[in-house]
Amino acid sequence: MTSPKRVEKRIPLKVACWNICTLQDSNKSECPQRKSALVALGLARLDVDIAAPSEVRLESQGSLIERGADYTLYWSRKGTEEHRQSGVAFMVKQSLAKKLD
Question: How confident is the model at residue 96 (pLDDT cuts 50, 70, 90)?
Fold first, then answer.
């Protein structure tokens, strides 16, 4: 007699791209990372799991947790001496980000 197969419930991920200029760094801005809070609130409202915002120009690389909206922003960018100034970024829902650490 064989045991019944265990069926795991799969929950689909909601993945999005967001063509925005909100995260562009400005020399006049004292705290450009806080702009990500606005994006995180929008993603939470739409219940997005992973998003790839465009036009992220934060320096070097790093991560920032937006606790109010439960998202982590991960980004990487080449140095400013490079010809291309844009970088890459992902905003990941905290429940998924915890599994990455």
Answer: confident
pTM of the full predicted structure? 0.72
Residues 34-45 have pLDDT tens digits of: 677 888 888 999
H/E/C letters for each residue in the chain? CCCCCCCCCCCCCCEEEECCCCCCCCCCCCCHHHHHHHHHHHHHHHCCCEEEECCCCCCCEEEEEECCCCEEEEEEECCCCCCCCCEEEEEEEHHHHHHHC
Question: For residue 59, what are its two tokens?
Answer: 């320096």
Q: For strand 71-77 and strand 61-66, is the pairing parallel, antiparallel, or unpaired?
A: antiparallel
| Sign of the Cα pseudo-torsion (67, 68, 71, 73, in order) | negative
